Amino acid sequence: MKSSSKIEWHKLLGELLKGSLSPVDIQVSTDVSVMSKSPEIDIILLKRKPGSFPSAQLALLPDGIRDTQVTDILLEFKYTESLSEKAVQQTVGYDFFYKAYKKDEKQVQSFLLSAIKPQKSTLKKLGYKSTNLPGIYRSKFQIVRQVILISLNELSNEPYNAFVKCFRDKKNKKRLTY
């Protein structure tokens, strides 16, 4: 009889983020409740001090995330599924409920991390356009624009991106050189 255990990739990523970011004063939690009952956000970085990231933190944070100045950063991680309308809706929902819970929406930024490179047709349908940083997309659509998309396969080869790039789609993995 086969075991139907599901690999919880977000917990693995969360533990690795916790191990590397906790020493630089960023608290990492997984499966954080946004309501009294489910759903839960995969990963949330909490309680960082307001303002710019200190250099020790910047050295560990990837493009997109390192550019924000909010105190609460929500990360929805899609490892086995590609970018879809449902994934964006889910992230927008988490963003909405967390901001309502937090009561300070200006200090919250949500990101959707995709291990699978998004298809051009899906990006277009969801209004996502590339930014000046490879792998970072912002939507032109009002309801979606609060969720920044990070395509792990497309991030630059900067050392600070190496950690999250370990989680990119295995079909597109190339030898990492930093």
In short:
The mean pLDDT is 87. 25% of the residues lie in helices and 22% in strands.
Tags for this model:
5 helices; single chain; 178 residues; alpha/beta; 7-stranded mixed beta sheet; 7 strands
Give the helices and strands, then pairings.
Blueprint: H1 9-21, E1 27-33, E2 40-46, H2 55-58, E3 72-78, H3 85-102, E4 108-114, H4 120-125, E5 128-130, E6 136-139, E7 147-151, H5 162-165
Shape: globular
Count of separate DSSP helical elements: 5
Which percent bin holds the helix content? 25-40%
Number of domains: 1
- Following the backbone from N to C, one meets helices and strands in this order, namely HEEHEHEHEEEH
Radius of gyration: 16 Å
Measure the end-to-end span: 44 Å
What is the SS-derived class? Answer: alpha/beta
Largest sheet: 7 strands, mixed
Identify low-pLDDT runs. none
Give the mean pLDDT.
87
- How many strands in all? 7
- Measured by DSSP, the beta-strand proportion falls in 15-25%
Strands in their spatial order, largest beta sheet: 1-2-3-4-7-6-5
Explain how this protein is built:
The chain has one domain (9-171). The chain contains 5 helices and 7 strands, in the order αββαβαβαβββα. It is 25% helix and 22% strand. The protein is an alpha/beta fold and 178 residues long. The mean pLDDT is 87. Strand 6 and strand 7 form a beta hairpin. Strands 1-2-3-4-7-6-5 form a 7-stranded mixed beta sheet, sandwiched between helices.
